[in-house]
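Hi, can you check this record?
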Amino acid sequence: MNKIFIGIDVGTQGTRVVGIDENGNIQGIYEHAFILDPSDIHEGWHQQNPEQWWNSTMLCLRKITSHIQIKKISAISVSSTSGTLCFLDKNYQPLIPAIMYNDRRSEKEAMYLNENLKCLTDKMGYQFNSSYALAKILWITKHLPDIFEKTVRIVHATDYVIGKLSGNYCVSDYTNVLKTGYDLIEGKWSDDIENIFGVPLAKLPEVVPPGAVIGVTTTECCNQTGVPSGIPVIAGMTDGCASQISTGAVSPGQWNSTLGTTLVIKGVTEQILKDPAGRIYNHKHPDGYWLPGGASNTGGDCVTKRFKREKWDYLNEKTADTIPTGKICWPLTGKGERFPFVNPEAKGFQPDNCDEEILYAACLEGVGYIEKLAYQTLEGLGAKISDTIRIAGGATKSKIWNRIRASILNRTLVQPENPYAAFGAAILAASRTHFDNLQQACNVMVKIVCEYQPEKTLVQKYQELYQKFLETLKEKQYI
């Protein structure tokens, strides 16, 4: 082992830092939870103090550097939440708390953007909503004009932490600027952002590919964290894209399903994947490909909200004896779906008069059906999908669920060892400093720990049940 690469992920609840060697072996890992401010703010608002992000990051880096050989640290990179914004003054200090990705105060501004920036939304194939950074910027111009006047630099959460590491607060990456209205096809900020909306482009960052070297760690950073000065600091990614990197799904045709509370599907295509229905969006790959993705409201919460945690092991064991159940179920727990179809009024459905064991298994199958529809939808839009899909998320702990999904999809599912954003950021740090590109880095650094093959005895039966599932969705006019 000659080199160590550091990955930092600043999430909603805390920071995780990992150090890995050039073969993808973990040399150190540390996490620190935020102390979140419980003070009341307006309904739908979510904000955090950026200094808390850095304080947490410093603590994690000091822990890591106390357990590894710091002379071997070769590069460092960062991921964080997509659409989270900081407004910095001339000294690069936050003027107000950061507006988080899930803050909904800018819903009206998002509608205004969709009405007046169609040239961009049509080109990129998405629609603005309140999670988009540009909508948040417009809200500030309207409601806090004094703050906007004092703002010298608007940065994303990833950019802020990179600025703390390197002193360079003026650069962002392809993935973070998507929601700020950057034209990823033309490779520039649209003049309309300034001409129509009054946002000076000079306040927005320079944009480079993820993985590009944008500076080196400063002496101040060294004193605060223990990371030596002069270490290359690498342009980062959003947490969702970094998580995708951690699974190794980085070459055209490769896709990843992350099944947590909801189901998130991301992959790689050679061309941008446009969807008139607005179900997906496209990030840009560091090597020039595209990273389309979509998120369903259906997911693992069908288990957490319906069944007691202490019974999960028992129910998983019983499921092995009850599949296929022959039941049709769509276990959406809330109201409305956004992918693989858009219907804000849609409601889930489940079989009547069945015991808990059967209902549990039917819920697992139902998620598999919606996942299959998602991949068929992507294929209908022109995506090429390989016979192997990478899987991540908390739900992968259920081996029977992985078996069910493999048989419904009729594809091999492979499970990476470390599918989380900090690990992806560490791979990104190595991608152009030690390797030639991101694909080469993932081929070496991502390890597969488990594989699930479709089972012939289940595939045909699930195909028949899937057709009934589609018929039910059509009857309800959801598709």
About this structure: The chain has 17 helices and 23 strands. The first strand starts at residue 4 and ends at 10. The mean pLDDT is 95.
